[in-house]
Design goal:
heterodimer, A: 762 residues, alpha+beta, seven-stranded mixed sheet, B: 225 residues, two-stranded antiparallel sheet, 5 helices, 23% helix
Chain lengths: 762, 225
């Protein structure tokens, strides 16, 4: 169905026409290019670009695809990378690939779909899942699980009631239909996200070492095959216009059609089809089509292979026959892949696609010209060096300025907030009320309303999922090898100090992975920030990147890849800087996993780590006092390493019944969650200053329940690693009881915890 | 010789791997059956697993009932072949009229993934003979269109003939009529169940091991036949 009226062909801007009409005005600004960038294109080509070439450069040089504002800073992840032999593929590939032993490798990545999810929550979030799954698939891996980190405006704001149910419904629809268990994530609320929610989706895949695939078009004469869905007009300019500009101001309506529409069934077919193609050894190189569609896939494949490519754009199967070359190049229609195949394998390739009812079309061939050449019904419409679009885009050194308001913010110490003094009258009643306030808030409350809409059991390898600290998946049924994953971010901490806040997010994800008994191995990240054109935002960004690079170096875990999402702001107001950090760990024997709930009666409860009076950016300060100021909790990465070492060793030796990380809401929330998720109460006593012990958010802490008889072994493990311990009490009973202060029956605790989200969202 | 239990894979099947694992755990040999292949390859019983057979954008199971393999299953079921449809498989069996009633959108309109308790009301079918009558078991519900419906006369007949396989206890999660979680055919060889027993066979990866007896029960039925 590629018959196009001759008039349309004649109307296309060709390479010859571009050379003949050097002064024809072109609407580069509407495509998001600056005058300087346009001049640079002209200089690369030695003539003005054709409309189709302009389309390619506009999407490939967009912030979203080129990382032009961040690239300079992201180099630190490589420069400061710790010595490691676990990386099989790193930054720059579709996703990082990590060796987990026994011949297995794991690839994982987290990516944002923030703006589409605000414009059209259901489809925006659904296609966010679809996009990250194809990234993982393109590495040669079978996708095995997803997670999502979600941030919305206030839970009681009317627009949150439009956005949140749609986003959750979209993730549920797409992920469930694909058959990928959703094993965890985050849910947070803050006014700063009201006009710009954050929807970050993570996918993890498993492959054998020898199955690794790269995005490279090698071997002149090899065929270029586009397969999956037909190309339609959806998502045109999604990368350049939607993902690389801020919301607010005029023209917002014009962005509405830029959101893609997802078809998870087609994606499921594409997954099974690709895996069968890989098994049959039919694929030389492969690339998913995400942002910037055919433009991105062709330029990156050709650039990656150091070759050239000839593409017959009129061969691309269309859903809308009226589309021209520029639109085909920019379309972000979902569920498409591009493969490089030797000519003798084309028929076998087509047979596999037919078995899965996947449409596949030869649209070009690899050449040795060093040029990306495209024709439209015989007329040449693109002739560019592929690297100039894929790798050699503009790089900006944006101005950086620490905001003038930062000192005042940091001086507004949360330590001054009134909290009940030890021994004061009404102390017990006050801390009890504060506990229930936090526990019954949308942020501190039970997330079942969301997670119950996701399939967490499919594939039968989910060992731990929400509400445990990390998701844990079995990789090999015979050996018990598994992987654990956690994502964390905290906008409040990062607002106070982006360097420390980012390290706190890294430390928390690292700690969460260790809670399950897994050894933290590698890091991915999704860096959500405001406009890079705002020097204050660039300061936040550079501090966050520096913090993450330094933190990873100190913890000995490399960054394997990630995603930068700029322009998250409403008008001139940026979101809180929100780097979301994902940590992957390896579990040697998933049957020795440790969950976060109190399940045994009579087990000794021990608090690991040191508690200081740290309330800056805490959930307690925010919910109890509406306060955000001072400094976030201090980071001690050596202490985090020591804590993780203790937990992993103790889990391997079977010493722990429970391990739960302390984070938002401190010990109070951690104890309540452990009681509720395990269905067992506890009785504890607190030293000196109970309010501090209950609500401080000092990092590097965990609460554990020790298996009966293992108390001295755990104590000596902690002593060896210099991890401070404090015996708090024991599990058991049907209440959370703090000696001399208060008791809350589990039923009451559960009602408060479970009630928050259903009360708001039905 | 161990029993050979076929598990059908439609293009959008998702829990086929899990069903095969449960078959193996029960001591039988799982046999992969393909939706487009009109042969049952001499299996002793068939499982239609969970998933979204053909995307199911129209109505769950509405297209799957026309798959080549389904024509074989309909004939074999009439001759007594044990057939178990789980979740999407249950929907397909209803669409194929091997079981009465239909599955509709959950009350509340949302997908639900929850560990649920069901009471086994029929312990004489090919798939439930290993349970005590009235046994309460924990299995995994995960579906968006799991609300069972049938007209009053059908319900009365199902009740009278003991064709209600099981009912939800401790609440009715999806608004199924009479809290029905599963039904069996009059002859007892065809069973459909909305929650997933194959996700409750191992404490490591599921909430319980209560679901395994579905897969061991059928071995008894096959051995007798």
């Amino acid at each position: 169905m590629n018959t196009t009226p001759a008039t349309t062909v004649a109307a296309q801007d060709t390479v010859a026409a571009a050379a003949a009409t050097p002064d024809r005005p072109q609407a580069f600004a509407a495509l998001g290019l600056t005058a300087d960038e346009f001049a640079r294109i002209v200089s690369i080509l030695g003539r003005r670009p054709t409309d189709a070439e302009l389309a390619v450069y506009s999407v490939m040089w967009s912030e979203h695809c080129s990382y032009k504002s961040s690239r300079k800073h992201l180099r630190q992840f490589a420069d400061k990378a710790p010595e490691t032999d676990v990386l099989l593929a790193g930054i720059g590939q579709n996703a990082g690939v990590v060796d987990i032993g026994q011949g297995y490798a794991v690839t994982f990545k987290i990516e944002s779909h923030n703006h589409p999810s605000y414009v059209e929550p259901f489809q925006g979030a659904a296609t966010g899942v679809g996009g990250i799954v194809r990234d993982i698939l393109a590495m040669g891996a079978r996708p095995v699980a997803v997670m999502d980190a979600l941030r919305f405006g206030p839970a009681d704001a009317p627009d949150t009631h439009r956005v949140l149910p749609g986003v959750v419904g979209g993730i549920s629809f797409y992920g469930n239909c694909l058959g990928l268990p959703n094993i965890g994530g985050e849910l947070a609320f803050d006014p700063c996200y009201l006009g710009n929610p954050l929807v970050n989706a993570l996918c993890v895949g498993v492959l054998r070492h020898e199955d690794l695939k790269l995005a490279a078009a090698t071997g002149p004469g090899n065929q270029v095959i586009l397969f999956g869905s037909r190309t339609g007009p959806d998502g045109i300019g999604g990368a350049s216009v939607l993902a690389s500009a801020s919301f607010g101001g005029a023209g917002e309506g014009a962005k509405r059609p830029s959101v893609q529409v997802g078809d998870p069934f087609m994606e499921k077919l594409l997954v099974e089809c690709c895996l069968e193609l890989y098994r049959a050894g039919l694929v030389v190189g492969i690339q998913d089509l995400g942002a910037a569609g055919v433009a991105c896939a062709t330029t990156e494949l050709a650039a990656g292979g150091g070759t050239g490519m000839r593409v017959w754009l009129d061969q691309v199967p269309l859903r809308d026959a009226a589309l021209g070359p520029a639109e085909i190049l920019m379309s972000e229609s979902q569920e498409r892949m591009m493969a490089i195949i030797t000519p003798e394998h084309v028929s076998a390739f087509m047979a596999v696609c037919a078995r899965w009812d996947v449409q596949a079309t030869v649209i070009g061939e690899v050449t040795n010209s060093g040029r990306l050449e495209m024709t439209w019904h015989g007329a040449q419409v693109v002739d560019i060096p592929p690297g100039s679009a894929a790798d050699q885009g503009p790089v900006y050194d944006r101005p950086i300025r620490r905001p003038d308001t930062q000192d005042g913010l940091n001086a507004d110490d949360a330590g001054r907030l009134p909290r009940p003094a030890p021994g004061s009258a009404g102390l017990g009643a006050t801390v009890r009320a504060d506990l229930l306030l936090l526990l019954g808030s949308p942020e501190g409350g039970d997330k079942t309303w969301v997670t119950e809409q996701y399939d967490r059991y499919v594939r039968g390898d989910t060992v731990l999922a929400t509400p445990h600290d990390a998701g844990l998946l079995r990789v090999d049924e015979s050996t018990g090898l598994g992987v654990a994953l956690a994502t964390d971010g905290n906008g409040r901490y990062c607002q106070l100090d982006p360097y420390t806040g980012t390290q706190l997010a890294l430390a928390e994800a690292y700690r969460n992975v260790a809670m399950s008994g897994a050894r933290p191995l590698a890091v991915t990240n999704c860096l959500n920030f405001g406009s890079p054109e705002d020097p204050a935002v660039m300061w936040q960004f550079t501090e966050a990147v520096r913090g993450l690079a330094d933190g990873c170096q100190q913890l000995g875990v490399p960054v394997t890849g990630g995603n930068v999402s700029f322009y998250n702001q409403t008008g001139s107001a940026p979101i809180q800087p929100t780097p979301v950090i994902g940590v992957l760990g390896v579990h040697d024997d998933v049957s020795r996993r440790v969950g976060s709930g109190f399940t045994e009666t009579g087990a000794q409860i021990v608090l690991l780590g040191e508690t200081r009076a740290e309330f800056g950016g805490s959930l307690w300060a925010w919910l109890r006092h509406g306060h955000l100021g001072g400094m976030p909790p201090a980071v001690d990465l050596e202490a985090e390493r020591a804590l993780a070492r203790v937990l992993v060793t103790a889990a391997a030796r079977g010493l722990l019944a429970t391990a739960h990380d302390l984070s938002d809401g401190g010990l109070a929330i951690a104890l309540a969650e452990a009681c509720l998720s395990g269905g067992t109460g506890c009785a504890i006593a607190l030293p000196a200053d109970p309010a501090t012990f209950l609500f401080s958010e000092s990092a590097g802490r965990a609460v554990v329940a020790v298996r009966s008889g293992a108390e001295s072994q755990v104590a000596s493990l902690c002593a060896e690693s210099r991890v401070p311990t404090l015996a708090l009490g024991a599990t058991g009973g049907s209440a959370l009881e703090v000696s001399g202060l208060f008791a809350v029956p589990l039923d009451e605790l559960r009602d408060v915890h479970r009630g928050a989200l259903p009360a708001l969202f039905g | 010789m161990t029993a050979r239990i076929g598990v059908v894979t439609f293009p959008g099947s998702l829990d086929d791997r899990d069903a095969r694992r449960a078959v193996k755990r029960a001591g039988a040999t799982p046999v992969e059956l393909w939706h487009g292949d009109p042969s049952l390859h001499q299996v002793d019983a068939v499982i239609l697993p969970g998933g979204f057979s053909y995307g199911d954008y129209l109505r769950c199971g509405a297209i799957a009932r026309f798959a080549p393999v389904m024509a074989e299953i309909v004939v074999a079921a009439a001759h007594g072949l044990p057939v178990l449809g789980i979740c999407n498989g249950f929907q397909i069996l209803c669409e194929a009229h091997l079981l009465p009633g239909a599955l509709t959108r959950n009350q509340g309109q949302r997908f639900i993934n929850r560990d649920v308790r069901i009471r086994i009301d029929n312990n004489t079918s090919a798939w439930t003979s290993g349970y005590d009558a009235g046994a309460e078991i924990t299995v995994v519900l995960k579906s968006g269109e799991g609300a069972y419906v049938a007209d009053d006369q059908t319900l009365a007949e199902l009740d009278a003939r003991g064709q209600i396989l099981g009912r939800y206890v401790d609440g009715n999660p999806n608004g199924s009529v009479a809290a029905i979680a599963g039904v069996v055919s009059e002859s007892g060889n065809v069973a459909g169940l909305m929650p997933h027993p194959e996700h409750a066979i191992d404490d490591l990866t599921g909430p319980a091991t209560d679901g395994l007896q579905f897969f061991t029960s059928v071995l008894q039925a096959v051995a007798v036949a």
